[in-house]
Amino acid sequence: MLSSLLVANRGEIARRIVRTARRLQIRTVAVHSEAGAGLPFVTEADEAVLIGPANPAQSYRNTEAILAAAKATGAEAIHPGYGFLSENAAFAKTVLAAAGVPVAPGTTDPATTVESAVEAATAIGFPVMVKAAAGGGGMGMAVASDEAGLCAEYDKVRGFAERMFGDGSVLIERYFPRVRHVEVQILGLADGRVVALGERECSVQRRNQKLVEETPSPALTPGQRADLLAAAVRAGEAVGYRNAGTVECLFDPTTGQFFFLEMNTRLQVEHPVTEAVFGIDLVEEQLRVAAGLAPTFDPAALSVTGHAIEVRVNAEDPKRFLPGPGAITTWVEPTGEVVRVDAGYTAGNTVTPSYDSLMAKLIVHGADRADALGKLRAAVAGFQIVGPKVNLPFFTELLDNAEFVSGDYDTGIVGRMR
After folding, report:
1. Is 372 in contact with 214 (CB distance < 8 Å)?
2. Handedness of CA 35, 38, 44, 48 (dihedral sign)
3. DSSP string, 313-327
């Protein structure tokens, strides 16, 4: 196993990686900007290095500064978490199509001009999604219903992508207005095998960014689930994938068809729900793959236990979802055997406008979906945050929404609630 690890990220994911590394007796190094000096992920690491100002481009996306910190501290490996340096280009759609993975209509090469974007959209068919090629987590995406809308959104998405990711490349894809967003967690093992660790339902979204994730998906039949997991494994095998990755798909519950959306070649924000139902630590498995070791579990004996749901606790207005940073004066987490909180902040910290609004992830594990919903209602009610704006009231509303409770919902549910 590795002896030392630099965590090239911040907030709750950095703290979560440090927690696993500490359990495995791996020395950890946190890198941080000036805005993160007093946050838990910095104070809980064995060593911390200041790498720049609050601007992400000058800190967490500053490859030279991070590599210099790794060398200076003698770190044996670097874990990028998600976002920032973990964002890689999507797998070529032609590769996945050849491997038998259903692919939604869209461009494989970036549309370099608005004219080429219009040409592609006309061939694909409106409505289309204008999407930052280098982006992730739903950022840098806009829907265009016609040519005029595409022309209006194209430059906006390009400009956003350039600012956020340093890459203004834009893809055009078919937009499906009434679908579900379902993804598969895969793990490419050190011995070359690729295994699927179930699927996650991610259809509760605002501005194409996920708010709630659950597993198993309430939308799939056993046969559909088997087909989806098999396709995800083929996707990983087609490129000789190693380590944790997520195959994201759009699922049409009316026809039962699913289409490849993108592959995230990293750990996902929502990975804790998978850990809950499989009883494994995905960060530990990542480190074992990187070290060339066998997994802690038997790939031939994987099974799901119960149902898990995660909500993203953000510093934002619960009605319009606008960011609301500020100093945290009260932070009280819910407790319980089946309740998990992955938090990037605590009382006395300040949520700044320099980064995304995610403060914590609240995860519950129940015997079944109804049990998990009940436990989540209690956990949301028991989470107290005072200072910044917080979206916890939205989750209270969602958990009483008949559409969500039924399990028969799609990516438009938040819009219908508003």
Report:
1. yes
2. positive
3. EESB-TTT--B--EE
Q: Which residues of 12-48 are buried (b: 16+ CB within 10 A; e: fewer)?
A: bbbbbbbbbbeeeebbbbbbbbebbeebbbbeebebb
At 93 the pLDDT is: 56
Chain centre to alpha carbon of residue 403: 24
At residue 262, the pLDDT reads 83
**Contact in structure between 82 and 136 (CB atoms under 8 Å):** yes
Under 8 Å CB-to-CB from 100, ≥6 apart: which residues? 231, 234
Residue 32, beta-bridge partner list? 50
DSSP, collapsed to helix, strand or coil, labels residue 27 as strand
- Of 196, 198, 176, 141, nearest in space to 257 by CA: 176
Number of domains observed in the structure of the chain:
3
Q: Is 16 a catalytic residue?
A: no
* Closest to 198 in 3D by CA, of 302, 319, 300: 302
Q: What is the pLDDT of residue 88?
A: 42
CATH number of the CATH domain containing 168: 3.30.1490.20
From the candidates 180, 200, 225, 266, which is the catalytic residue? 266
User: What pLDDT does residue 92 have?
Assistant: 42
Does 189 map to a domain? Answer: yes
Domain that holds residue 188: 180-417
pLDDT at 211: 98
Q: Which residues of the chain have pLDDT under 70?
A: 86-96, 98, 135-139
Q: Go through the chain and tell me how many residues it has.
A: 418
Query: pTM of this prediction?
Result: 0.86
